[in-house]
Amino acid sequence: MKNASSACWKSLTLLAMIIAGCSKQEETNRNASDAFPIKVQLDWVAEPEHGAFYTAEALGFFKEAGLDVTIVQGGPNSFSINKVATGQADIGQADSTNVILAIEGGAPVINVASVFQHDPSVLMMQEVCPVESWKDLEGMTVMARPEWAFIPFLKKKYNLEFAIVPQNFELGRLLTDKHFVQQGFYIAEPFFAQQQGVKLKFLYAWDTGFDAYTTLFSNKAFVHRHPRELAKFLAALKKGYAYYMEVDPEPAHTTMLRINVKAT
């Protein structure tokens, strides 16, 4: 995890420097003491993978950078890419491949930083499930997001045919059906399953060569007009990562428990 976080911080630093240096625009006519508003749309509800954001908020790193940052929780229907593309949010979080596909489809968005060097998406099943490899999925039914770019890649790579049922973001069937396979994050669902006495195992998407990032992305117009503010945001977020990973996660956890009552 330390290597992944180190790579993340380096990427945030580099991108912040590039964004700040690329623009020759004049500063907007705001008083220097005014906090610049930035709205961030997360991909999911507040959980430990978002710890850096809530650390930076709780400890005032964003405020120190002259930013007034609003963090909006995600969820099953967060539609972070659509919200950033239409200006409802300034920065979003998503799977890098979904952002790339959105760009290909004409969405005015651009990746600006990596959050996870390896996207933590997996197919998960009970430890006693007979599925041991990707080829064992042949003829099965898998619960996953229909738009997940990994699914068509997986089917083509291994010449597989299996049915997809839309992700409902609940663990009920997974915990009771020993033959059920569901998309998830290996850093999230296992904790809740273990609380119910169920051990899970995983097929990691990156083992197939589909090694996506989890990224932060922004609206192209926002990047063009406010490169310095974006650079300040990334620098403050980097501080949040460092503090959360290396010093104390408690400030973030306190905030997340308050706004996400299910995160116990």
Q: What would CATH call the homologous superfamily of the largest domain?
A: Periplasmic binding protein-like II
What class, by secondary structure content? alpha/beta
Strand content: 15-25%
Q: What is the CATH domain class of the largest domain?
A: Alpha Beta
Corresponding CATH architecture of the largest domain: 3-Layer(aba) Sandwich
List the helices and strands and how they pair.
Blueprint: H1 2-22, E1 36-41, H2 51-58, H3 61-64, E2 67-72, H4 80-85, E3 91-95, H5 96-104, E4 109-116, E5 121-126, E6 141-144, H6 150-158, E7 163-166, H7 172-176, E8 181-185, H8 189-195, E9 200-204, E10 214-219, H9 220-225, H10 227-246, H11 250-259
Parallel strand pairs: 1-2, 1-3, 6-7, 6-8
Antiparallel strand pairs: 3-10, 4-10, 5-8, 5-9
